Amino acid sequence: MNEDRTSRALEGLVIGVPAARRAIETAKLIERWGGTPLVGPTVEEVPVEDEGQVLRATAEVIESGVAWSIHLTGVGTRRWFEAAARGGVLEPLLSTLEAARLIPRGAKASAALKAYGLGFAWMPEGETSREIADWLAPQISEGDAVALQRHGEPVPGLSSPLEEAGARVIDLITYRWEIPSDRGPAETLVKALVDGGAHALVITSAPQVRHLFGVAEGLGLRDRLQAALADRVYLAAVGTVAAAAFEREGLAADLIAQPPRLGALVRALAAAREAVDAKSGTT
Questions:
Q1: N or C terminus of the chain with fewer C-beta within 10 Å?
Q2: Rounded distance, CA 127 to CA 203, Å?
Q3: Alpha carbon of 274 to those of 13, 146, 234, 266, 278: distances in Å?
Q4: pLDDT of residue 264
Q5: Within the chain, which residue ranges are assigned CATH 3.40.50.10090?
Q6: Which 3 state secondary structure label does DSSP give 130?
Q7: What is the per-residue pLDDT for 241?
Q8: Structure confidence at residue 24 (pLDDT)
């Protein structure tokens, strides 16, 4: 296939995009490959209302002299440090983390640490919480304090193994994901998926899937959405964490990007054009 044809590999396809923060970037990548993005964010990033909770957890991190600090997201890490700066405790927090062993889940979290002059001990190749749990739990000593920066959703697959190994996990929660206050674009996306107006769906985070079904529930279309995604819409996920969200809805991702990067996801989708056509019935 020549370069021009390759660059138009998604031509004629409508690709659903439920992302919020990276919606524009995702849409541009799809367009670069000739596809038509249908953006309907199903998530909205909402800062925690009570920043005092963040500062109290930060004080516990400093006072405990944590042995480990896990950073699941870049935006969450930056929000944590910004809250610490507003609370006047950024310097002691950074000093505490410099003495600890830091584990970012992925490139964004590691970049956030680097921006504050912090390095890291290890980063999981697949960028999953399960890898972190498997790697770290055997190294935990009884009573170790472990800081866990996460968004508002619990991560039992990570925190439970560490607690079972004897760790005291300190949660740092700076934001959560909710269904957008303006549901219009997300509702349009759900209707397109249900009615045959979209051929594929690209997912870059697990909450996007859960909230997609929440929007469908509000429209009375949950069962029809589940059937459409199972039978006709090609499902592409940026990594195993996002793909697992499909499994919780009784679905299986048709494509899981490796490495778990947005560019790799869209390239892999373009390379899977024949499979997309086969599932969606595109001629």
A1: C
A2: 16
A3: 12, 46, 11, 14, 6
A4: 95
A5: 3-43+180-280, 47-177
A6: helix
A7: 84
A8: 96
Contact 275, 234 (CB under 8 A): yes
| Contact assessment for residue 198 and residue 192, using Cβ atoms and an 8 Å cutoff | yes
Burial class (CB in 10 A: 0-12, 13-18, 19+), 142: exposed
User: Which residues partner with 178 through β-bridges?
Assistant: 44
What length does the chain have?
A: 283
Residue 233 burial (10 A CB sphere; 0-12, 13-18, 19+): buried
The H or E element containing residue 202 is strand 200-203
* Contacts (Cβ under 8 Å, ≥6 apart) of 182: none
For the chain, the first-to-last Cα distance in angstroms comes to 19
* Structural fold of domain 3-43+180-280: Rossmann fold (3.40.50)
The token pair at 207 is 């909450």
The separation between CA 116 and the C-alpha centre of its own chain, rounded to angstroms, equals 22
Structure tokens at 74: 């870049």
Q: Which residues of the chain have pLDDT under 70?
A: 1-6, 283
Supply φ then ψ for residue 73, to 5 degrees: -140, 150
- Listing DSSP states for 224-238 in one string gives HHHHHHHHTSEEEES
Question: What separation in angstroms does the CA of 184 have from each of 23, 44, 96, 188, 226?
Answer: 15, 13, 45, 6, 20
**In the CATH hierarchy, which fold is given to the domain comprising 47-177?**
Rossmann fold (3.40.50)
Tokens 């700076």 label which residue? 174
